[in-house]
Amino acid sequence: MLYTVGEISKRVNIAPSTLRYYDKEGLLPFVERSKSGIRMFKDSDLEWLSIIECLKKTGMPIKEIKKFVDWCIEGDSTIEQRLELIDRRKEAVLKQIEQLKQTLDTLNYKHWYYETSKEAGTCDVHKTLKDEDIPEEILAIRERLRN
68: buried, middle or exposed (CB in 10 Å: 19+, 13-18, 0-12)? Predict the structure, then answer.
């Protein structure tokens, strides 16, 4: 089955303007065009679009995604380069996850801080709290923030 930009956009939840931009940047060399020049996507293009979106979500620049697409089209001689690129992106995502976990910890700490303050009617309550009165996971976060 063939899909227009608008149809595939709805299927993959990518704005039509983004798909046109990807095509303009050379990320979609596999997309066919009708006789009148309309981009026509096949079912097999869905995986390509998913991979491009995945790489984009890792923070990979369009130029690097283009290089990856080119390597894929080039064939088996570029398997090693593609594997190295994927491994680098995987490492970047793992670092992002760790940063997000620390961000979530900080938000959890501040939630506890303000929830406790709200119950006491003042932020001054934290001046008198003993470490043993603070939940262990919150205490660990507070210590990380102070160091």
Answer: buried
- Give the separation between CA 80 and CA 58, rounded to whole angstroms: 20
**Using H for helix, E for strand and C for coil, what is the string for 31-57?**
CEECCCCCEEEECCHHHHHHHHHHHHH
Q: Which CATH architecture has domain 2-74?
A: Orthogonal Bundle (1.10)
In the sheet that 32-33 helps form, which strands lie side by side, from edge to edge? Answer: 2-3, 39-42, 32-33
Task: Say yes or no to pLDDT of 1 above 90.
Answer: no
In sequence order, which ranges of 39-124 are alpha helices (DSSP H)? 45-57, 62-74, 79-120
pLDDT band for 119, please (50, 70, 90 cuts): very high
Q: Where does CATH 1.10.1660.10 sit in the chain? A: 2-74
What's the chain's length in residues?
147
- Tens digits of per-residue pLDDT, 74-89? 999 999 999 999 999 9
Mean residue pLDDT of the chain comes to 95
For residue 7, count CB atoms less than 10 angstroms from its CB and return exposed for 0-12, middle for 13-18, buried for 19 or more.
middle
